Amino acid sequence: MSNQDHNRDPYTGRMYGDEEESYIHDYEDNDPYGVMGYEEYGGQESFDASYYDNANDNYAEPAYYQSDVHDRSQYDSNPSGRRRRGNKRGGMDSDVESMSDGAFSIRSSLVRTPASHTSAADIDIFGEYRTKGNNSGRYANYAPSTDSLMNLIENKKTYRPTGSVTSFSQSASWVSNNDRSGMDFAQAELILNDSPYPSWSDPNQIPLSKEEIEDIFKDLTNKLGFQKDSMKNVYDMMMIMLDSRASRMSPLMALLTLHSDYIGGDHANYRRWYFSAQLDHDTPAVRQAANNKATGEEQVDAVDEVDNLSSFVENWRSNMNSLSQYDRARQIALYLLIWGEAGNIRFTGELVAFLFKIAEDYYKSPACQQKVEPEREGYYLECIITPIYNFLRDEGYQLINGKYFKRDQDHDTTIGYDDLNETFWTPEGLRQLVFDDKSSLMDLPPEDRYHMMKDVNYKKSIRKTYKEKRSMGHLITNFSRIWILHVVVYWYYIVFVADFLYDNQFELRSSSNPSSVVKSVPVLLPDIAPRRFSLLAAGGGIAPFIAIVGAIFELGYVRFNKNNFRILMNRIMVLLIFLLVDVVPIFFCWNKGEDPTFSYVQSDENKFVWTATKLTGDDLAAVSSQYNTFRIAKIVAIIQFIFSIFVTVYLSIAAPGYSFQRQGKKRSSQGLVNRTFTANFPPLSRSSRATSFSLWFMIFMCKYIESYFFLARSFKDPFKWLYQYTSINCNEKFIGSKLCSHQNYITLGLMLLLDLLLFFLDTYLWYVIWNTVFSVGRSFYMGISIWTPWRNIFSRLPKRIYTKILATADMEVKYKPKVLCSQIWNAIIISMYREHLLSIEHVQKLLYQQVPSDENGRRTLKPPTFFVAQDDASFDQEFYPPHSEAERRISFFAQSLSTVLPEPIPVENMPTFTVLTPHYGEKILLSLREIIRESDRYSRVTVLEYLKALQPDEWDNFVKDTKILAEESAGLDNNSTSRAFEEKGDTKVKADDLPFYSVGFKSASPEFTLRTRIWASLRSQTLYRTISGFMNYAKAIKLLYRVENPEMVLLFGGNGSAKLERELERMANRKFRFVVAMQRFMKFTKEEHEATDFLLRTYPSLQIAYLDEEQSPDGTSSKIYSCLVDGRSEILEDGSRRPHYRIQLPGNPILGDGKSDNQNHASVFVRGEYVQMIDANQDNYLEECLKIRNVLGEFEEYNPPTVSPYSPASEPQGPPVAIVGAREYIFSESVGVLGDVAAGKEATFGTLTQRMMAEIGGRLHYGHPDFINFVFMTTRGGFSKAQKGLHLNEDIYAGMNAFSRGGRIKHTEYIQCGKGRDLGFCSTLNFITKIGTGMGEQMLSREYYWLGCFLPLDRFLTFYYAHPGFHVNNLMIMATVQIFMLSVMFVATMNITLNICPHVDMNDPNYYKSILAQNCFMLQPVSGWINRTTLAILVVLLIAFLPLFLQMLTEQGFVRAVTRLGKQFMSLSPIYEVQVTQVYAYSISSNLSFGGARYIGTGRGFATSRLTFATLYSRFSEASIYLGARLMMILTFITLTMWQWPLIYFWLSIAALIISPFIYNPHQFVRTDFILDYRDWLRWLCAGNTTQESNSWISHCRLSRIRVTGYKRKRLGERTPSTGYVPRAKKSVIVFSEIFMPIISAVIVIVAYIFTCSRWGVPLYTGDTTTSSDGSVTYPTVDSDPVPDNQSSIFTAFVISLIPVAINAGMTFFFFAFAFFLGPLMSSCLPGFGKAMATTCHLLSVLIQIVVYYLSCIVEGWDTSRAFLCMIVTVFVQRAFFSILLSLLLTREFGEDETNIAWWTGRWYDKGMGAWVPTLILREWLCKIIESSIFVCDFLVGHAIFFFLSVFTLIPWIDKWHSTMIFWLRPSRQIRPPIYSLKQRKQRSKVSLGYGILLGFAFVIFVALVTVPYVKPITDSISVPETIVKLLRLNN
């Protein structure tokens, strides 16, 4: 192949390095601004225009397609259909210059927005709609109709926006005005093409030339010792920012505003820091605050003068205003130099500000100015930055044997970036900077501090400022208001409803009860007010108690100093007073609160039945004094209740951080936090605040009403009958009846706890509902719903393109809008065609085309019928494939333009921005091998085959395009192109085309194979897809620049000229940069380097930032550099590229989890004012990129100030916009059910949720695809945070940081980017695990403390329920399920142990008398409670589907919403949701206990591979399978003893926890593979005992306990564990989760078992009654039989539980002894000796457990329900016992599995253990005891799963149906089965037959073991000596 072919892009057919865009290339012969006045698409040779009849300008109406009366054309007759060359214009009646009466008739000079020209005729078309005052940042209150905008333009209403400057610089725009009709071509070429910074090139306007600014940088570099490359880099950064700003304002104002943003403005972080650390005053939010008087005195610069806050502000402003332009540029340059070389220190914004201050002090000193010799290069890095970096690195890592390893310490003892940064917030913190001799840096003269920084002892100077202790206490401290709002209100409800607690006449008090009225005279009842109000008021004491607990925990988190201790102790004392006032009166009110005017007589039959009789006469007079006391008690109780309400309301509303503190003018550093940097929240507008209040009012109003009736009031009857139940005879040998007699209260306690959890969950349910309702309502308001009245989005689309996409307000329109719109629309359609989304036939119907006109043979422009066809049912045409990507993109584009968009400004005036993408190991470009071969032996399909099945239409378009290219390359004549459109009926053609339709090419030449690779890569989650998508920004900028500047096209020689192309490329590069941070670039494989090189050749302007490591000559040390290359970099001899910049770093920048560090090192190469954060699995589209100017307008910086920001006349500025978010479309939603569910969650969060969060001030930063205010964020710590582990979810911390420092965060609905999501079961749950563990780390963070303790209530609630509340909700859901099972288990034990009352009519007001007389247990109301609770839990789980349904309903219609949800339910997505909820809960709870949060590479490839059973079991056993198995055992017991229909739901839900990993495993039910899975699982159970194997059951066990024990540190430097290092969990942290909770669970089930045994042998009451002759009912005597008192169920429970453990202990020791003495000899003869030993021992453990189960059956007299409960006790007791052993006795693990292998083989002598052997033997013995029981669990549970799943393998065609469910592929497109050779098939059949028989045999044994207890002849034949039974029951 020729060199020319090598330089050709095989996908586009273009030459590499050719920068012309696709739409220019295809039509380079057509000048869009020539004599025709429009762009001709391919001429009539390419498209058949005969379909179109006539044209009309007013194509918004259907009548447009009928006639053309106003259109005039100047086209000359041209039979060839090609335009004439040249730039000469025609007459005045041309389309280009003529006026018409159409909808787009415009001939005026429009105002440039925001800075206008001086023409009196200038107008602002948005003037009537411009928002007055502060608003959300949009430029119109509502979306005006396009017609009204046009009328406004036509009427030429003059409007001059306030704050506009006189004009832009002359080089800033091509738009003509009254004073200037154009530019001289030579001058334009000189100014625009030769200057790198065009807007900073006019010597008459710029305050400093770029040469002078460069001299400033050189001088600073020489004086302070910066690196030359760093200086060049930040010089370019500053100049581009100045150029960007100067393009829309004067250069002087550009310099002023940039200096204001960096150094001296109201919102400059340096100014805030200076006031906080130097003057130590809060910074006023707006300039009016400067007039407030301050009471304190300050001494400034050692001058004894008293200044108030106003003086400080005015002095600062005066100093800033007096600076020369040179000084302003120098200060900006110095700050950028300091920041640009700071490396990881860039994460500490205030430390950077401090370094700037000391550098500035030194630079201005005489010593610096008089210095002759320049400072050595690198001095700043070596002496200032590196010591700080080394301190931070050593805090997290330690050096062992020449390698750095993570320290074995948690966050609370590790000083991180935030601790270091907060040291510089206050003068007290600055004084901590000391040297080795303990002298302070701040005691030195300011000019000496710069050089003395290298001697600061940071180890002594820096301390923890906030302790991120791993504790559940953070949930109480940070979210105390949530607990108060729920627990206290629930107390009020329950106490009010449970009136029987304090009213013994409660049954008579009901007005509906006939017993309360006797002969029409109401019965007098006692006054219960004192006791009721006092008991209610006691709930008010819960609020201060919760606050006290939170404050106590807070003492352990905040920095312990005198000030913080005083504040918190004051708060605790006040809260303690509140608590005492709330609680103490209850003793008086309860004792004196019984109405003395009544006499009370207790029933002899039941202690809860009383008779109250009103006193009269002398009896009443005798109690007058008591009555007075009673009245006092009543008053006290009412006051106590009112006070409790006040306390509850106050503590619910008031932010805890501000509680009980003086809110005077106190300096910020004297509070718990420095509010300047932590609680400076941006205010909400009035409308947003009203929306916020309305939302939360509706949520809590509905929640409190519904919860009262559904949870509290409905719980009254179960509460009453459990509380009033009088227990009957029961006994236990050791504890008697003390426990069993209170079984009803224990059950009641569990049910109350469950009811309280549901009370919490109710709130989240109503939050989801109302947030969705408000969000949908806002979508109607914004006009983005298809149900809005202005739905005709397509017919109005051309007008909206003109008014909202094009900067028409800044154009002198000499061209018809139709001409301009056609350029935009055609480019969009052509881009879709080139992406193979549209066929050539579809393109013909969608493009603007030229058609003959009625006059003189001229041609006119014809719009496509598409615009009216979409809103007119009479059109029956297909414009794109139904439900295709093209339809989605066009529909969203049209719909988005119906919303409010900020006004665009001309391209040359728009800000410069950068797209930043971090890359680690993501796939760059798929190789041919990857797409045409299966990924592994478990995969049944290639990537290409799967993509072809998912996108058949796009593949057909690609094949047709490829065939045409192949025929052209083969040199065929033009007629041969018709073959591309031939029918497939021709056999020869089909045979020839088979290679094309199979793999996409017929010739294996690189250009064709590369096309197929690119096609597949663009439909997978690859970096190439991301880059190609976001490089559309460059295409969009070029397109807009051409369309809006026709004069420019003429000036540069017309379309297709080299000068024009250079100008377009120059503008694109000037306004847009794309930086990819490739962290591993220098460690790429050959394939990755080739893919990267292809990217750089395809996109020469793409920039890659990477790390380069340079080893020292002796190899003992290295230097790391941050480098930047692009496609234009010089290629060196070794093939590498010479970097433009190579900046040395202080060390390895990857100190955290990677992504944030990667972003940080690349941030110095970002250019412009804004940066878009993009991940490496995203996509973008041309039509969305066209809106970039609108999005950047959301930052509200298009209107430049008219005066200096430092001038007294300057207007106050509102809080700046820090982040602008955008929507995401999850393009992986069509890849099966899991991809769709994941996509649905992302879509609803990115639209419904964020829409409301942004409106009410709760949105944060979520990474992609947010736009970032570069100056705001980089001066405050960067785009993310980077402490390892703590900042795992790095993006959200940047949002919290910006929000806490006063930055506004907005969200846009009119632009969206593509986003890939995880597709497989494991990958989606890996992502969920990462999010869950990251949330656990967030709970510990100081940011959550700030937001939770200092936000006002409504914004706190928004933050809580949108972020941590979701995860706490998942925790509570799973806790609810577990507590529900335990509660029902207790009810079931009562059902089989107590006398159950017969069913009664509870509507009968006297039913309770008969129940109390029977002394039986009233189960009926409890059963009703079970039904209601089941419904509540079901609703809570299903509510997750509501947002997606409403989102689809509003944006895509009812049919698609129902279809999508129906497909998800048919695919069993609720089962998946149960698993997701559990994984979320498990992740966050395990992280709060053990830590270990780390980045998990989820792997976003297509999940078509079948995973083995062992892989899935080991992955999810800890997370869900073990929990599901325990709950399944409890549920089985409940089913055996108390069956109810609602239990079916729990059978499904709990089964989902166990089987969902296998249900969503591709091809799980292929019979042969299923049986081979069984074989592999058995091997997995036995592997790893002779040689070390990572994929084995023993390795799985080790990994499970390593999170508790950790690894041995001494061996770490010698051998790194294959699993990575894991630290030992702190005992104080895990005591709750690993010791306390297992013990509590075991105690609960033991209590249940004890109760069932407490009445052993006592017959149950049948409920028979006798009726006497007088009609009275006589109930039989209950409990006439004695209760045994000589047996102990406690002893039985522990013995049955620990017998297997004891036997296993002896058995494992025996095997150890055997292996120790004979193992070395046997191992030499039998290679599998260790495996055989372990397998034998473990199988014996299984047998022992089975024997123990039958022993329990015998002990329980073959009562299977009680025997099963005994097994439940065994499981829970063993779990608690092993948790205690594991947590308290086991030492650390070795890095590898040496001790396990030595135990079974006896080879201890060659493992390198030395003197540790004796202790290791004891340790390993404990491990083997634990492992034996775990093996029994895994063996039995695994077999049970196999037995259940095997049933599905018997269903015919199960794999097809299963694949349809998972992949959503029709059976006709099913993935083919794998092809095996004959030998392989025979071998598979043989193996499957053998192991199938073994599985069947195991199933028979399992069924036999289960059914034996129910076969009476067998049970009667089994006898055990009575002595053993008595011994087990301790029956003497």
TrEMBL record:
The residues forming a coiled coil are none
- Highest taxon listed in the record's lineage: Eukaryota
Instruction: Tell me which Gene Ontology terms the entry assigns under biological process.
Output: (1->3)-beta-D-glucan biosynthetic process; fungal-type cell wall polysaccharide biosynthetic process
The enzyme's E.C. designation: 2.4.1.34
Keyword Zinc-finger recorded: no
Compartments in which it is found: Membrane
Q: Which Pfam families match?
A: FKS1_dom1, FKS1_dom2, Glucan_synthase
Q: Which GO terms describe its molecular function?
A: 1,3-beta-D-glucan synthase activity
What the record says about family reads: Belongs to the glycosyltransferase 48 family.
Q: Which PANTHER family match?
A: 1,3-BETA-GLUCAN SYNTHASE COMPONENT FKS1-RELATED (PTHR12741:SF48), LYST-INTERACTING PROTEIN LIP5 DOPAMINE RESPONSIVE PROTEIN DRG-1 (PTHR12741)
- Protein name, as recorded: 1,3-beta-glucan synthase
Lineage, opening ranks: Eukaryota, Fungi, Fungi incertae sedis, Zoopagomycota, Kickxellomycotina
